[in-house]
Amino acid sequence: MQPKILIIGTGGTIAGMADDAEKPGQYRAAQLSIAALLAGVSGIETAAAGPLDAVQIAQIDSKDMNDEVWHALLKRCDAAMHDEAVRAVVITHGTDTLEETAWFLHCVLGRLAKPVVLTCAMRPANALMPDGPQNLKDAVAAAAALAADGQPLLREVVAVTGGGELHSARWLQKVHPHRLLAFSSGEQGPLGWVDGVTVRLRQGYASPAPGAADGYSGSQWLAALPAPASQPWPWVEIVTSHAGLRPGLVDALQAQGIDGLVVATTGNGTVHELLLEAMARARQQGLPVWRSSRCSDGVISDAVLPGVADLEKDLAVALTPYKCRVSLQLALALAQVQAKA
Questions:
Q1: Of residues 13, 92, 101, 320, which has the active-site annotation?
Q2: How distant, in Å, are the alpha carbons of 12, 94, 103, 123 from that of 75?
Q3: 24, 162, 302, 310: which could join 127 in a potential S-S bond, CB 3.0 to 4.6 Å?
C-alpha cells in the first residue's frame, strides 16, 4: 500500500466559524474537526498523489498554545518519522503562534527524512471566501512534492501561508493582524511557492540533505521532554526594553521562580538603563539572560544562532524574541536532563 500523508489538526482560525459569513473577522476559532476540514477541500486527494489520514490532537485558538500541545505534536511527529506507512506530515494551526510552533518543531526534530509542513488561515472556514481550503491543499502538495531523484523535496520544517508562499521555520513571522498575506520571512523572503500541485523553490535554495551530522533528533527530545502535566517544562519569560520603563519587573519575575529570561532589546541590542541593571543582577544570581532585537528585520550585530546545549548567561541570539524564548526553554530542559544523568 502506498504510504499516506498524515494531517494533524490543532484548531485555529482555519477550523473557525463565524456567526455571520459576511463578517469573517468576528468568529470563534477551533470549531471544525480536521476531518470536516478535509471534506471541504476539493481536489486534495489529487494534490496528495496518494492516501490521506487525519488525527485531531488539540482544538484550540493558537493564542493559547501551550507545552502540552507541543509535546503531543512532538510525539505524533516522532511516531510518523518511524512509521513506514507515513510519508509526510501536515499540521493545521492558528496563525497567532504558528512561527513559535514551527520553530519548536524545527529545533526538536532536526534533519528530516519526511516533510513536516504547517499551514493556517486568516479567515474562518465559513467565510464567503475562505483561504483555509487552498492553504491546506497547498500544504498537502508541498508535503507530497518529490525531487528529481524521487526523494521528498522538503527536509526541514516549513509553513505554507497565504498566496501559496512557502516559508522556512527559521525566518517565518506573522507581520499583519488581518490581511491574507499575513506572514513574511523578512529580508530572506519565502523559500518557495506552491501553485496548485506544483512546488517551486527559490533559485539557489538547497533542501538539507538527510543523514547530516546534525541529523534527526525527535526521539532524543521526546525522551528529554517529559509530559508537561507530570513535570513542567522550564519557565522562560520575555521582557521588552522600551521608553518609560520602570524598575521591578525582572525582580518580580525572579521572585515567581522563572528559569530564564529573554530581553527584547531596542535597535542593535540596546537596553534601557534600568533594565540593564536588572539584567546584571539576574545574571549574578545565576539566571540565564538572552538578548534578541525587537526589530522586525535583521539581528543584533554579534548575535549567534544558539545550539540547544549553549546555555550562556548572556547571549545575543539571532532569532525573534519569541523564537529565542523557545530556544532558551529547550536549552534549559536539556541542562536539567544532563544534571540528572
A1: 13
A2: 20, 19, 16, 29
A3: 24
Q: Which amino acid is at 141?
A: A
Q: What are 182-241's pLDDT values in tens digits?
A: 999 999 999 999 987 899 999 888 776 654 446 899 999 999 999 999 999 999 999 999
Q: Which residue is associated with the grid cell 484548531?
A: 11
DSSP H helices, the chain, are 34-39, 44-48, 67-81, 98-109, 132-144, 218-224, 249-256, 273-284, 321-340
All domains in the chain, ordered by first residue: 4-201 (3.40.50.1170), 234-340 (3.40.50.40)
From the candidates 10, 92, 95, 320, give the one annotated as an active-site residue: 95
Q: What is the mean pLDDT of the chain?
A: 94
Task: Round to whole Å and give the CA distance between 13 and 85.
Answer: 29
Distance CA 131, CA 179 (A): 11
- Residue 148 C-beta-side C-alpha neighbours within 13 Å: 2
Instruction: Examine the residue annotation and report whether 95 is marked as an active-site residue of this protein.
Output: yes
Is the Cβ–Cβ distance between 71 and 19 less than 8 Å? no
- Asked about 13 being catalytic, the answer comes back as yes
The type of residue at 26 is Q
